[in-house]
Design goal:
Number of helices of chain A: 26
Radius of gyration of chain A: 30 Å
Order of helices and strands of chain A: HHHEEHHHHHHHHHHHHHHHHHHHHHHH
CATH topology of chain B: Helix Hairpins
Structural class of chain B: mainly alpha
Distance between the termini of chain B: 51 Å
Helix content of chain A: over 70%
Helix content of chain B: over 70%
Number of strands of chain B: 0
Strand order of the largest sheet of chain A: 1-2
Shape of chain A: elongated
CATH architecture of chain B: Orthogonal Bundle
Strand content of chain A: under 5%
Largest sheet of chain A: 2 strands, antiparallel
Distance between the termini of chain A: 93 Å
Structural class of chain A: mainly alpha
Oligomer: heterodimer
CATH class of chain B: Mainly Alpha
Chain lengths: 612, 99
């Protein structure tokens, strides 16, 4: 099989499974069988992606595929804006191959984990869950392998749809249904930017290519970045991501931590030749990203719901990536995307196994879980260490690369924000670990007798822990694929960030470890918690919605009611009045008609005589 | 007699017929006025036929006479119907199509 065949397998096999399961009710409603078909496909896809990655690492020619889809304009024309062929297909290079590996690997782990996690669902729901999972794998792969922005747009919308379906998986629960609608609305609102950006790009250049000189590059990049802010949950469009935690935990791991939310970052990586042409948008990205990183980290400190902590942490880490990309540090952003995908998926899945064991999301209901749940507990600690950026773990290297890049680009204020956020990251992850895993068992946890997760849930955790430990050393290889040289060296920035992380961890140990010190400090976090609980950003959006959209709507409504309807009423009234005025002419008397005929003839005759 | 004399006589008869149609309210009067107009035309047909020295005009006149008879028959039938529904034959009484 050629590399292209492997790539096509990762696209078409999940699509086939999703279509078959969606259309064949009998098979889907068997539950177990449908799930195993989906899981087997995901595992084979991960295997195919690994073969593809191996081929790329061995410098084999990868090939590609492009099928002409739309032909636009005149291909023979000599003008620079002559017609172009818009293609669907597969583009294989370092970025897409490594992203494909991340997506299929995490998806396979998550699907395997879901076999255990979702086992309590009814057969029909179980089958439905895996149908959407397969559809997601196809959608995400088509986005990753897209040869142009138009195909990426198709995949982008499709993953948004699956996100909606999976957040609302427990659709009988009102809060889940609301969260699904909210996520859909917010991301669709942001996607207006993507659509408009594509239109501007197409009008400018006549193509949807990744790298073309664009006259209105600032516009295109700015509009695309707006969509990225929605998809990758950047302030102030991050509001949907914490609510999206209403979905099943494996869904949060796959869609709302590892892959789908990273699609925005992936878009910027892919379209980096375009973003390079818009330095102002890059600066905006640096500030939005670093602010989000700090803002979300502050809120994460105050959350007691383990999934909410991880959700805000995801916002924060995506902020790192966006800031890095804005500073032109493409390798750093993409490297952090890959490491983050693994350790954040790991954290969510491990958190899922805790939730499964104690039937609560609240870390205060957990406590001392490391003892009964060794595998889940230790893998969670590995993931937390990677996220906190403790030296040697995966997150350390990628975060260091971002911070170094930020330092070299001379963005000092964002750099400080990101370093502080790194300290807070270590602090809130330490807090979760000390309370949920190491602390005294809570009454709640005691009642549920936590027991180790079944093997089908432990295996994915172990599989994900390996890259969380080791992937940091893959940075130079990845940079080389991108045509850059990167060798790790610990500079002043890296030392500062590591010191911040260790200080954060020490602070967490001091406050939430066995000593339970610093009670006064805890109240210092309350404003952040209140900010998150009050939903100030949500209310700002609602206010803006009322102020802008409703005002606009009422203005348009006024115009419609009084101008458009007015014109129509004038026409109607005139016709009616004219009819009334002319009514007496038709008096039903034959002789009057005859008079009219005679007079008419006379007039015609007279006219005829004088006209000659 | 010259042709023009016949033409004047025909035009005069026709005008009498038109006057009758426009002023009479009696349905039978209307029918009679139509007959006068038709026969004015008949007269002209015959006069032109003789003027050109051919038989065409007379043939046409015969056709017109036959047509006028049928038209009068239909018209009288309508008058009878009108009388039955209105107890009268004034055309003013049938003005249902007034707007």
């Amino acid at each position: 099989m050629t590399p292209l065949d492997y790539a096509l397998f990762t696209l078409l096999a999940p699509l086939g499974v999703a279509v078959v399961l969606a259309l064949w009710n009998g098979l889907r409603q068997t539950g177990k069988l449908a799930a195993w078909i989906s899981v087997a496909t995901a595992l084979l896809s991960a295997f195919a992606a690994a073969k593809l990655l191996g081929a790329h690492a061995a410098n084999e020619p990868l090939g590609g595929l492009s099928i002409p889809w739309l032909i636009h304009g005149d291909l023979q024309s000599a003008s620079p804006l002559r017609g172009s062929i818009i293609e669907l297909g597969v583009r294989l290079d370092g970025v897409s191959v490594s992203m494909l590996m991340v997506v299929t690997f995490v998806a396979a782990c998550v699907q395997l984990f879901s076999l255990g996690y979702m086992a309590d669902e009814s057969d029909a729901d179980y089958g439905r869950y895996f149908t959407w999972q397969s559809l997601f794998l196809f959608a995400m792969n088509s986005l990753v392998l897209a040869p142009n922005l138009l195909q990426l747009f198709l995949g982008w919308e499709l993953v948004g749809l699956v996100s909606y379906l999976l957040i609302g998986f427990y659709y009988k629960k009102p809060s889940a249904a609301r969260a699904a609608v909210k996520a859909f609305w917010v991301t669709k609102f942001a996607d207006i930017g993507l659509l408009l950006g594509l239109i501007v790009l197409f009008v400018d250049t006549g193509t949807f290519a990744w790298s073309v000189p664009v006259p209105h590059a600032e516009w295109v990049a700015g509009l695309l970045f707006f969509a990225v802010m929605g998809k990758s949950a950047q302030f102030p469009l991050h509001i949907w991501l914490p609510d999206a935690m209403e979905g099943p935990t494996p869904v949060s791991a796959l869609l709302h931590a590892a892959t789908m939310v990273a699609a925005g970052v992936f878009l910027v990586v892919r379209a980096s030749p375009l973003f390079v042409q818009a330095p102002d948008v890059g600066t905006l990205m640096v500030y939005v990203g670093s602010f989000t990183a700090l803002f979300a980290a502050v809120i994460a400190v105050t959350q007691n719901d383990i999934k909410k902590v991880l959700a805000y942490s995801t916002c924060s880490q995506l902020g790192y990536m966006v800031a890095a990309l804005g500073a032109g540090n493409i390798v750093g952003g993409f490297f952090h995307l890959t490491t983050h995908a693994f350790f954040k998926a790991l954290l969510f899945l491990a958190a899922g196994s805790f939730i499964h064991a104690v039937h609560s999301n609240d870390i205060r209901h957990m406590g001392g879980l490391l003892k009964p749940m060794k595998v889940s507990g230790w893998t969670f600690i590995i993931g937390a260490a990677a996220l906190a950026g403790l030296p040697g773990f995966a997150g350390f290297f990628s975060k260091d690369l971002i911070l170094e890049g930020m330092f070299e680009a001379g963005h000092l204020l964002p750099l400080i924000a990101l370093i502080v956020a790194a300290g807070l990251t270590a602090f809130y992850m330490g807090r979760v670990v000390f309370i949920a895993l190491l602390g005294e068992p809570s009454m709640h946890a005691h009642e549920h007798h936590p027991h180790p997760a079944p093997p089908v849930m432990q295996a994915p955790l172990i599989a994900l822990a390996v890259p969380a430990l080791l992937l940091g050393f893959g940075g130079p290889t990845m940079a080389a694929w991108y045509g850059q040289i990167y060798s790790f060296h610990l500079g002043a920035v890296g030392i500062t960030a590591s010191a911040m992380a260790l200080a954060g961890l020490a602070g967490a140990w001091f406050m939430f470890g066995p000593k339970q010190g610093g009670a006064g400090l805890k109240s210092a976090f309350e404003p952040g918690g209140r900010l998150a609980a009050s939903g100030a950003v949500d209310r700002a959006w609602i206010g803006a919605y009322k102020a802008i959209l409703l005002t606009l709507a009422s203005a348009i409504g006024w115009f419609d009611r009084y101008v458009i309807d007015g014109l129509i009423n004038v026409v109607g009234e005139t016709t009616l009045r004219l009819g009334q005025a002319l009514r007496p002419l038709q008096n039903g008397n034959v002789q009057h008609y005859l008079y009219a005929v005679a007079l008419g003839l006379l007039a015609l005759g007279t006219f005829g005589m004088f006209a000659q | 007699m010259t042709l023009s004399a016949w033409l004047v006589l025909g035009a005069g008869l026709f005008c009498i017929g038109v006057y009758g149609i426009l002023t009479r309210r009696n349905a039978i009067g209307l029918l009679a006025s139509v007959e006068v107009m038709a026969n004015a035309v008949n007269l002209l047909l015959v006069a032109f036929g003789r003027y050109h020295g051919t038989g065409d005009g007379q043939v046409f006149a015969l056709f017109t006479t036959a047509l006028t008879v049928t038209e009068a028959a239909v018209g009288l039938a309508l008058v009878i119907l009108l009388y039955r529904s209105r107890k009268g034959i004034l055309v003013d009484s049938a003005a249902e199509l007034r707007g």
